[in-house]
Amino acid sequence: MLDSLITSRTRLRLLVKFFINAANKGHLRGLADEFQESTNAIRKELNNLTEAGYLEKEAVSNKITYSANRRHPLYMSLQGIVHKYIGLDTILETLLERMGAVKKVYVIGDYAEGRDSGTIEIVVVGERLDTAYLNQLEPKVAAEIGREVRFHAVSTFEGDGLLLYGGGE
After folding, report:
1. Residues 31-47: pLDDT tens digits?
2. Where are the beta strands (DSSP E) in 62-168?
3. What pLDDT sits at residue 8?
4. What is the reported pLDDT for 160?
């Protein structure tokens, strides 16, 4: 869907990196290594996104670090589009629809760090969660969004991740 609108694969990967999780940051060489692309391709897209105001840059030591510009008027819209592109909205909707007493839902692993690796790991926090339902849900959601999904049901979670849902404390 989004890849037909944004034809630059590098630009799309950068949007996912920075807009899936506002805490994500990156610098030129690190992004080039992560995406396994040339620094010139990354530099060009970083410059375009920065000039458009979607990214901010900050000089840290001898590196320029990039992050999403949270003050941009389209920030929330872009984040929503990226979440839809990845399928996070579908995952959350499906989970909350029939799962029961879900307290929190986190994305962990590659997607929390902005890497579109193809496997989304979701931690579902709550008491007496229906793990059988989660197991049957994985292939259904995967078929719908085109990415593998792994659910982890836990009663508490202290790790790092991107909080998608935080109700029911």
Report:
1. 999 999 999 999 999 99
2. 63-68, 102-108, 119-126, 148-154, 162-165
3. 83
4. 87
**Do the bridges between strand 55-60 and strand 25-27 make them parallel or antiparallel, or are there none, so unpaired?**
unpaired
* Largest Cα–Cα separation, the chain: 51
Q: What is the mean pLDDT of residues 87-103?
A: 84
| CATH number, span 2-76 | 1.10.10.10
Domain ranges of the chain: 2-76, 87-165
Tell whether the model's pLDDT for residue 2 goes beyond 90: no
Residues 133/99, Cβ–Cβ less than 8 Å: yes
Quote the crossing angle between the two packed helices 9-19 and 28-35, to the nearest 10°: 110
SS3 141: helix
